[in-house]
Design brief:
three-stranded mixed sheet; alpha+beta; two-stranded antiparallel ribbon; Dna Ligase, domain 1; binds zinc ion
């Protein structure tokens, strides 16, 4: 995150608390998560304050708004471009900072010259894999049945 002074926002104690919460936060919290955490310190703070502050920060490119968790927007204080791993079970989001080859086949480029990319990878995190090993086997068996039933 950049220096607060460079944001160009009037920093009220409430806004500062939101910024402090987001600083170095790698959880990719939602507005509700931020509200829950910061309103402990500022019980009079409204959800609208959180929402409006996030919007102001997003407009100033001080946070990234991620639309990768269904309808729930999540916020990332690291605006350096990076990829994400998203757990489809617990909605945890992890960062990937390594560059790797993501070449689009020539035929699919439609004349574009690619300058950047950002990819969301969906899967199941280690914790959920441990907990859900049994449950997921049931799911895949169900899917197997549905596939067989489909074409008939
Ligand atoms: Zn998980
Ligand atoms: Zn991230």
């Amino acid at each position: 995150m950049r220096e607060y002074k460079s944001i160009g926002l009037k920093l009220t104690p409430q806004r500062l608390a939101i910024l402090e919460y987001l600083k170095d936060n790698r959880e990719h919290p939602s507005a509700a998560d931020i509200y829950a955490a910061v309103s402990e310190k500022f019980p009079t703070m409204s959800f609208a304050t959180v929402y409006n502050t996030l919007k102001a920060l997003k407009d100033r490119e001080h946070v990234l708004e991620l639309a990768i968790d269904g309808g729930k927007r999540r916020y990332d204080p690291d605006t350096v471009r990076h990829h994400h791993l998203i757990c489809t079970e617990c909605r945890k989001i992890e960062d990937i900072y390594v560059e790797f080859d993501l070449r689009v086949p020539e035929v699919e480029l439609k004349g574009f010259e690619i300058s950047a990319n950002q990819v969301d990878f969906y899967g199941v995190c280690p914790e959920c894999r441990k907990i859900g090993a049994k449950g997921r086997r049931v799911v895949s068996r169900r899917n197997g049945k549905a596939e067989k039933a489909g074409p008939m």
